[in-house]
Amino acid sequence: MRVRLRIGFFAAVLLATVNGFAQSNGDLYKTAVGLRVKGQFHNSLAIFKLLLSRDSDNTAYLDYVVVLSCKTLHDDTKPNNPPLDQYKHMEYLAKKSLKLDSTNSESHYAYAFCIGVISEYASRKEQIAIAGIMKKELDKCLKLNPRNAGAYHLLGRWFDKLAGFNSVEKLAVKVLYGSTLPEGTYEQAAAAYEKAVLYEPDYILHQYELAVTYHQMNKDADAKLWLQNAIHAPYAGDDSAMVKNSCRKLLLQLK
């Protein structure tokens, strides 16, 4: 049923635009952003792909296509069969966006998002190399836009990942990143996720990751509160069932 709805929506968009571009780019952009805010990632992506086909040098279209493509691909494919060629193409688009405008916070976020997903399927050596680049991109993004919830979420994952590295691996990241590299602790991860929740309170994935981090810090009472809040939240985006199921599984472990 979900696949049919997605195809039907995309067909409707095409019908609305083929005759002299009946809907303006601005109208479609507003619609796509609204769908993204509601968590309707697939439908939003369909419109942004259409917009990108009209203007391949528009950084906003590029950034949304990169993030939404990586998000939906990651959620829809099995971990043992990642679509690496598609992720690499998204990396190319993210770099293109940065080349067009290196002062755009969303372009830095899109690139960090893309290489963060790629890192999940990389070797440990490659992960170490990506970690330094990803942190720099997130720093640039948040300097340009200190309220970017998605960037804080990625930063939380970055600290969480680094906290799991051994001392030799952390040293290797520090060599690549510089002497000012944070040590990487679960406390820093929790602080980043808290910022993500602050700036995007309705998105339950932030709440779930914060709960996971609290559990890693042996703060299970706090973890339970966020898990229960996410489970009962009205959020009904594409990933709602998946995230709420993960919340229920973790909650059972904490009882």
Descriptive notes:
The structure is a single chain. This protein is 76% helix and 0% strand. By secondary structure, it is an all-alpha fold. The two termini are 35 Å apart.
The general outline is globular
- Low-pLDDT segments, ≥5 res: 1-8
What value does the average pLDDT take?
Answer: 89
Q: Rg from C-alpha positions?
A: 19 Å
What's the main sheet like?
none
How much of the sequence lies in strands comes to under 5%
Provide the succession of SSEs.
Answer: HHHHHHHHHHHHH
Keywords:
76% helix, disordered N terminus
Question: Nutshell version of this structure?
Answer:
With 255 residues, the chain is mainly α. The chain has helices at 2-17, 25-37, 41-54, 59-76, 84-100, 105-119, 124-144, 149-163, 167-177, 186-199, 204-216, 220-231, 240-254.
SSE blueprint and pairings:
Elements: H1 2-17, H2 25-37, H3 41-54, H4 59-76, H5 84-100, H6 105-119, H7 124-144, H8 149-163, H9 167-177, H10 186-199, H11 204-216, H12 220-231, H13 240-254
Helix pairs in contact: 1-3, 2-3, 3-4, 4-5, 4-6, 5-6, 6-7, 7-8, 7-9, 8-10, 8-11, 10-11, 11-12, 11-13, 12-13
